[in-house]
Every structure is written in structure tokens, then in C-alpha cells.
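Milestone 3.1: sequence recovery, worked example.
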């Protein structure tokens, strides 16, 4: 199959499950989300990203696991059991536009994917447009450039098995060790593995409710595998705001603990909802 002959690839319609619904007090919890004006708890953006992977492997080939990337902006929330599908439109043999739509045609996720690095990725473009904000309250103590110490990370078989209970796109490599030394970690568990550094670089004032705004993942010497000792490190790279949210961006890497070889990197944007913060209410409803 020649990649150049492909005009567009559409994935199957799926109905993803909100596997984080039991995380009370957060945006994935129905009660909390409804109090903030949403119809229910939202599905984590990293879960939506997993639905793109079969299209990326189909188009870029198995090499995507080693040096591929995905860069997405979350346009709208996706809710439990909502019908969505992924679409890929090639730009070149090593780059493509990607998006996810729901059954009324609305785009809920949009971005880019690549084989090898992409200097013009969705997140790269959005970071160039970022504007700093002096009126940050929840993020008032966050400093651009603040870096974390290395944090140990290990993704276990049990964590992957738990994810596979609800994943929309189960891949053979998530279960079997071949063709890699260990089974491959789906995107959601290894995005979650960076949570350990967030508490060191993103001190947040007061109770808050956050949600993913954008995520870019890039394999450098991939894939990320189970039962492997890694070290994660990261730093804050930008701060901003919107009328309804405070925004923090950070970049992080995942490296082999024994060799120091960098396996993957991630850039992530988190939104903190003003309407959920006592530092903003009632002004948050503007």
C-alpha cells in the first residue's frame, strides 16, 4: 500500500467509557461536572488519544511506536458512551492532520500526527500564540522555568490490565511482549505517569477542578513499556488564561533509569476552572 494514494482514513465509530468516573470531586465525576454546567463527567483526553493509534499505525507503520508523535487540542468534552470516531488526512508520508468527531459532525479533538518530530505540530503552533497573564490566582505561585527533580516511574502489568478493561482500541502489543521486550503501555497510563512531577512544579492555591486542554506525545526511542524503570522530569514552559480558566503548560521527558536514554517526551496544557475556585467566584461566571 502506498501512503501517497491515501486521501483520508476514517476509524470506526466507538462509544468510549469514562473509566475515571469514580474520581470524586474532579471533572470526570458526574456530580462535580454537572455542578459546573456540563451534562456529565468528561472522558480524559488521554483516553481519546488512544482511539487514534490504529489509524497512526495503519498509515505510518510500526515505526510509529519508535519515533512517532501525536499532538492534539481538546475542542469539546467527550462524555461517557458518546459516539465518536477518529479521522486522519495525510499531509506527507511523515505527517498527517487528525481529528475526532461526534455523531452530529462536531469536532471534539483536533491535531496533527507524525513520524519523527514535527516542528509545526498542533501544540507547537498554539504555544507560539500563547499570551501570558498577570492575574492568575490558583496558579499565582507557579513559575515559568521551574523544573522538577527526577521522579521514578514504573508502569505495571496491573495498570495496563486495568486500562484494557475499557479501552476502545485494544492492540496486540498491549498484551503480548512481541515485537518488543515488554508489552507496550497505552497512551493513557504513560501520560498519567507524569503526574508525579506536577506536584513539584505546579503548586495550586485552594481547591480546584482541572481538565486537560492539550497534549503532545512524542516517541524518541519508543515505545514506553511495562515493567521498566523510568525517570520523569519536567518544567513549566508557559502560563496563560481564558475567560473561564487559568492555564499552565509544562514539558516533560521519560528516560530509562539505568541508561539515561530518553524514551519519550510530552507537552501538556492543563486548564483550571475559575467557576470551581473560591478565589474567583462569583467573578468566574463572566
Amino acid at each position: 500500500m502506498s501512503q501517497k494514494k491515501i486521501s483520508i482514513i476514517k476509524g470506526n465509530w466507538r462509544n468510549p467509557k469514562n473509566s475515571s468516573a469514580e474520581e470524586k470531586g474532579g471533572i470526570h465525576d458526574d456530580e462535580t461536572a454537572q455542578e459546573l454546567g456540563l451534562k456529565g463527567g468528561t472522558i480524559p483526553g488521554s483516553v481519546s488519544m488512544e482511539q487514534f493509534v490504529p489509524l497512526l499505525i495503519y498509515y505510518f507503520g510500526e515505526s510509529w511506536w519508535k519515533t512517532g508523535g501525536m499532538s492534539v487540542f481538546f475542542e469539546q468534552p467527550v462524555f461517557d458512551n458518546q459516539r465518536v470516531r477518529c479521522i486522519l488526512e495525510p499531509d506527507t508520508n511523515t505527517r498527517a492532520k487528525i481529528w475526532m468527531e461526534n455523531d452530529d459532525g462536531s469536532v471534539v479533538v483536533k491535531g496533527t500526527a507524525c513520524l519523527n518530530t514535527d516542528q509545526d505540530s498542533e501544540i507547537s503552533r498554539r504555544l507560539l500564540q500563547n499570551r501570558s497573564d498577570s492575574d492568575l490566582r490558583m496558579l499565582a505561585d507557579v513559575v515559568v522555568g521551574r523544573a522538577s527533580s527526577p521522579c521514578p516511574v514504573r508502569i505495571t502489568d496491573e495498570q495496563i490490565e486495568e486500562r484494557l478493561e475499557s479501552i476502545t482500541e485494544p492492540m496486540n502489543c498491549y498484551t503480548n511482549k512481541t515485537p518488543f521486550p515488554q508489552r507496550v503501555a497505552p497512551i493513557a497510563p504513560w501520560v498519567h505517569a507524569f503526574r508525579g512531577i506536577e506536584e513539584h512544579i505546579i503548586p495550586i492555591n485552594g481547591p480546584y477542578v482541572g481538565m486537560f486542554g492539550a497534549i503532545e506525545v512524542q516517541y524518541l526511542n519508543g515505545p514506553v513499556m511495562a515493567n521498566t524503570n523510568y525517570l520523569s522530569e519536567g518544567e513549566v514552559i508557559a502560563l496563560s488564561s481564558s475567560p473561564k480558566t487559568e492555564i499552565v503548560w509544562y514539558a516533560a521527558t521519560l528516560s530509562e533509569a539505568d541508561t539515561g536514554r530518553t524514551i519519550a517526551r510530552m507537552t501538556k496544557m492543563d486548564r483550571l476552572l475559575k467557576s470551581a475556585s473560591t478565589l474567583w467566584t462569583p467573578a468566574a461566571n463572566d
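The longest strand covers residues 230-241. The chain has one domain: 3-280.
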